[in-house]
Fold this protein.
Amino acid sequence: MILAIARRAAIFVVSGAVASVAVFLFMAVLPGDPAQVALGINATPELIARTRAEFGTDRPLATQYFDWIGGVLTGDFGRSYVTRDLIGPQLADRLGVTLWLVGTAMVIALVIAVPLGSFAAVRHRKLSGTVISGVSQLGVAVPAFLAGILLVQVFAVQWRLLPSGGWTPPDQDFGGFLRGLTLPALALGLVQGAVLTRYVRSAVLDTLREDYLRTARAKGLRPGQALVRHGLRNAAVPVVTVLGLQLTTLLIGAVVVERVFVLPGLGSMLLDSVAARDLLTVQGIVLVLVIAALLVNFLVDLLYTVIDPRLRRS
């Protein structure tokens, strides 16, 4: 097991290194000169040359990459081309907001998907199971930003129960933090909950057809009891795979939802940096998102060995 963990950790490190090169090269080949963008169209050639030297963009690409990645490994993402502020502290603050949003949304999705998906599988020949399956299919087709707009219209505009946007740090006002987080987390969590419900239903249905569950029911257990005692652990293996993919989807979906609810997360920072053509900041944000996706896949691989003892023995 230790060897398997070490092998997966090595794959994670190599994948992260390759991803950093890909992100850097992608940003390097984009048209436009950061110095020209920062100074404006009326800047003199001498001033542009000095600014390029200040930014370090006049050096060879290999030198630029190793200086950048060396700083990233120590937490130094450089300074913004536009504002000249340090990027690292901004990334840390914005990442905290995004993690709160994504983590809460995933909890909401699991609270919805696991019981409803299991119930729909056990009752798949009944009207109640069919209704849950149909509603989840409808939920899959709803974009997260549309769900957010509808939630704002109902809970913020009509009923005035929750704020329509804004962010309050939890250490300043925890009640205000919860109120501000509720609608965006629901917008993400309800949509992802519908997606996960479909996969949970499919996984549980496959498990219900296994011989060992038929044996458990033959010994007197009801279908629900047999599923809880013997089936959910095996059904969790394919669901964990989808869960990892959905976590990555939540990170991407948070970009739009943060804009809808005016949250100061990574998504809003990314859109603002793209609009300002602040390529170094965009480069750092994209790298953080890619590493987060790789880390999720790494953790999912480790979780397999916890859920399925057969993988530990192999």
Summary: The chain has one domain: 87-313.
